């Protein structure tokens, strides 16, 4: 294994485990501070750090929008306002089980991406992808319902939180796809400007909600009481995971790097266990099914992209012919 693969694997592992730890840690913090303010304050700090890094590395010119301000605003809103506020609000509304549900939804991002591309291009994905999507959906339902059919009779109590988490996850998928519109930009520049604009939108949201007394403005004591959780959320899932993931994907390619997203629910389950949460066999089986579906889809993708023996033979003969001609 060469150094590039080792470095890329380590970076993707750091990002995935950070995101997996994000949900149990945020569950503690959300007992003391409103989810909307928690999301805003977290990324306000991340934005300040990214701005300083971009200024030092690329200078003032890197902050120019170059006529792409509306596009940056859209993707920034989807990634840093819709995703964070909707996911944490839904997680908090569901209670302890929302921690695992949010984590499982996170792992479904590759499948949601496939579904979105299918809708936009009207091109049906391969059969193995459809089978993987069904298996992943079955696993997610096991976790969400905890194997109890009575869940559906009480769906009204969970429908809004589930919808919020799902909308948030879709928001991050849209944000991730937005990077292709800025191919000439560095990862740091795209991350900084979208995070900056998304955080400004979050500021408008919390200001508007507070003005109408929909949410309570946290006092200094409430913010200080979650200083350790907030510090973790800023430095690891907020900053290190974002930069590590993008750097790792570049070294491994998306096809290889996406496998590491499987560590998100694994990390979440381990931390929830040590926090005293009793993980049921249905939640465990459902998590395993989701991970299996993603690995199955990735393995079939690799085999479909691997050149056939006949094509390798043709290439070999062409290479030999060119060498003789020289």
Automatic annotation (TrEMBL):
Q: What is its main location?
A: membrane
Query: How the protein sits in the membrane?
Result: Multi-pass membrane protein
Q: Which InterPro entries match?
A: Diverse_Substrate_Transporter (IPR051258), EamA_dom (IPR000620)
Q: Domain of life here?
A: Bacteria
The protein's location, in the record's own words, is: Cell membrane
The record lists the membrane-crossing segments as 36-56, 72-90, 96-121, 128-147, 159-178, 190-216, 228-245, 257-276, 282-300
Name the UniProt key words of this record, in alphabetical order: Cell membrane, Membrane, Transmembrane, Transmembrane helix
Residues in EamA domain copies:
7-144, 162-298
| Family in the record | Belongs to the EamA transporter family.
Could you identify this protein by its name?
A: Drug/metabolite transporter (DMT)-like permease
> What species does this protein belong to?
Paenibacillus peoriae
Q: What's the source species' lineage?
A: Bacteria, Bacillati, Bacillota, Bacilli, Bacillales
């Amino acid at each position: 294994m060469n150094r590039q693969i080792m470095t890329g694997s380590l970076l993707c592992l750091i990002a995935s485990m950070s995101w997996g730890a994000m949900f149990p840690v945020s569950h503690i913090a959300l007992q003391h501070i409103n989810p909307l303010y928690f999301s805003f304050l977290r990324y306000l700090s991340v934005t300040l750090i990214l701005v300083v890094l971009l200024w030092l590395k690329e200078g003032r010119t890197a902050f120019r929008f170059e006529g792409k301000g509306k596009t940056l605003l859209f993707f920034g809103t989807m990634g840093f306002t819709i995703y964070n506020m909707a996911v944490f609000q839904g997680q908090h509304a569901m209670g302890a089980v929302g921690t695992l549900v949010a984590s499982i939804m996170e792992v479904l991002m590759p499948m949601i991406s496939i579904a979105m591309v299918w809708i936009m291009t009207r091109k049906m994905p391969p059969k193995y992808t459809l089978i993987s999507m069904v298996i992943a959906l079955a696993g997610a339902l096991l976790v969400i319902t905890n194997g109890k059919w009575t869940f559906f009779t009480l769906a009204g109590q969970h429908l809004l939180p589930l919808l919020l988490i799902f909308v948030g996850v879709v928001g991050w998928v849209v944000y991730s796809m937005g990077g292709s519109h800025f191919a000439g930009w560095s990862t740091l520049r795209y991350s900084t400007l979208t995070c900056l604009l998304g955080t400004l939108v979050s500021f408008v949201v919390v200001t508007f909600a507070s003005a109408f007394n929909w949410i309570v403005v946290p006092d200094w004591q409430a913010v200080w009481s979650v200083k350790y959780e907030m510090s973790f959320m800023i430095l690891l899932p907020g900053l290190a995971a974002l930069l590590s993931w993008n750097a790792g994907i570049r070294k491994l390619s998306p096809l290889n790097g996406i496998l590491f997203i499987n560590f998100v629910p694994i990390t979440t389950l381990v931390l929830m266990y040590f926090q005293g949460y009793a993980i049921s066999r249905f939640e465990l089986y459902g998590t395993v099914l989701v991970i299996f579906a993603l690995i199955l889809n990735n393995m079939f993708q690799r085999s479909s992209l691997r050149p056939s023996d006949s094509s390798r033979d043709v290439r070999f003969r062409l290479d030999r012919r060119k060498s003789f001609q020289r």
